[in-house]
Amino acid sequence: MGKLENAIAIVTGGAQGIGPETAAHLAAEGARVVLADIAPCDAAVETIRRAGGQVTAVRTDVTYPAQVAAMVDHCCRTFGDPDILINNAALASALDFKPIEAISSEEWTRVFDVNVRGVFECTKAVTPIMRRAGYGKIVNMGSGTFLKGMAGLPHYVASKGAVVGMTRSLARELGPHGIRVNCVSPGLVMTEQMRDHATMGTDAVMSAQIDGRSIPREQVPEDLAGAILFLCSRSSDFITGQTLVVDGGSFLH
Known about the structure:
Blueprint: E1 8-12, H1 18-28, E2 32-37, H2 42-50, E3 54-59, H3 65-78, E4 84-87, H4 105-133, E5 136-141, H5 144-148, H6 154-174, E6 179-186, H7 192-195, H8 203-211, H9 225-232, E7 243-246
Parallel strand pairs: 1-2, 1-4, 2-3, 4-5, 5-6, 6-7
Helix pairs in contact: 1-2, 3-4, 4-6
């Protein structure tokens, strides 16, 4: 029996990168998983089902409350009430490094819509369900860029700072109702999309990242699985409002 037997989990940003890897590990531990993304999740669904996991997928733009509500309703009708939410959907690999004067107001707003409002909308949608159950685990995806600073991505860095702040506020609000809210902050994770990025995928950037780590190697999506599973499990029931840095020992605190 897996550690998350009978758990029902929603993973946003489930089509590529960290999302599918997280979902696969949740399913391997017995959770029934709902993948939400604006992109097709067919490959992730097939991988999980081939391994014997239970999974479904819903096309969802996390910035639209109606789509988020429909996604949560689909979860409830298909598997039951969710007790785990992984707020993973974010704009990252699609962004180019730019000086602040080159970033349009529209781009700034879009980053905050997905990276911050998406967390708000999904959390808002599952909170009444978790309140009724008296239990829930919410894990938000932060970023080491907020902790260390990074030039050229002020909108992304600021959005991840907002996620940390929201995590702390929600932990205070929802803790009395049995809902734990935590944040996992990775370093630069080398997904396929990041490898194709014009700046972050270059040998120079990757080498600099590796050189700055206590564990000197690339970070891959699988490196986050243990931390996320821990925060979703009963083993972490007395932990809330925390930011767990998973970056190979780059940012030390």
